[in-house]
Specification:
The protein is mainly α. It has one domain (20-258). It has helices at residues 5-45, 48-73, 84-116, 122-145, 150-171, 175-192, 202-229, 239-258.
């Protein structure tokens, strides 16, 4: 059967949508760590001027940009809210935007300052860190989205399984970090295949949430037991790396909730 131009066009659009959705999830997975590091940096020397400027950015985003985007998407009339509850929610949202903007501004300023002082850093390092955090979620999301095309699903599934190893090699991770990423990654990937694309990527967010919660709790328990029975150096997590992974899986979960599905119907494929 000859493939029509319309089918090719639809396939190209869905494929591009899949890439955007995977990229969306990946950025969300990296974002919490950036914001957290920036908030720690800001807490030591932030000024009133910086707080007010960030609050202004947050207010503009919450009261202008976000409602405008909803209106352009045609969603405003479906969930328009009135009353003090809506005002309180919007105010809280603006505060969250303000805090996030402070964190992002501070962490990027720190990267630039290190580069200016001759200690490396700069935009290149910021991008490298983002890619490192985003690499695994991107590979896993692409593997899930490629299921309708088996010729593409098999190599992308293999890439998703190997993603922690590849990321460890590319970004110089310790073996411990590769192991603690690879084990929950395989479980998340496998369990995600059991779900259909009905409902978009959101059902897989719950998979990431509960698998990561069980994994982190089990790893913490194992480290506590290892600490009691031996004084050797092998621990799954340090205190720092444990909370890095907590933020990583939280961002990954949020990304799967927020990212749009590239499939308009059950029959769409990439």
């Amino acid at each position: 059967m000859r493939t029509t131009a319309a089918e090719l066009s639809t396939g190209a659009i869905v494929s591009l949508g899949a890439l955007i959705a995977a990229f969306w999830v990946a950025i969300c997975a990296a974002a919490p760590e950036f914001i957290w590091q920036g908030m720690w940096i800001a807490a030591s020397h932030v000024t009133l001027t910086e707080v007010l400027s960030a609050a202004l950015v947050g207010l503009v985003l919450a009261f202008f940009i976000e409602p405008l985007m909803e209106r352009l998407r045609g969603e405003r009339h479906h969930r328009t809210r009135h009353g003090p509850g809506a005002a309180l929610f919007t105010a809280a949202l603006s505060l969250a935007f303000a805090l996030a903007s402070i964190g992002l501004h501070e962490v990027m300023s720190a990267f630039v300052a290190e580069r200016a002082a001759g200690h490396g850093g700069g935009l290149e390092e910021a991008i490298a860190l983002t890619v490192a955090w985003a690499f695994v979620p991107f590979a896993v999301t692409m593997a899930w989205l490629s299921v309708p095309r088996r010729w593409l699903a098999v190599p992308l599934a293999a890439a998703a399984v190997l993603a922690p190893v590849i990321a460890g090699w590319l970004f110089g991770w310790q073996l411990r970090s590769v192991v603690t990423t690879a084990i929950p990654n395989v479980l998340i990937l496998a369990l995600g295949y059991r779900q259909t694309m009905r409902g978009g990527l959101t059902p897989r967010a719950f998979t990431v949430a509960w698998v990561s919660a069980i994994w982190l709790a089990a790893a913490l328990l194992a480290d506590l037991i290892l600490g009691m029975v031996q004084s050797g150096p092998f621990r799954l997590y340090s205190a720092f790396s444990f909370w890095v992974d907590v933020r990583f899986y939280a961002g990954w979960t949020i990304g799967l909730v927020l990212a749009p599905s590239p499939y308009r119907s059950h029959g769409d494929t990439i």
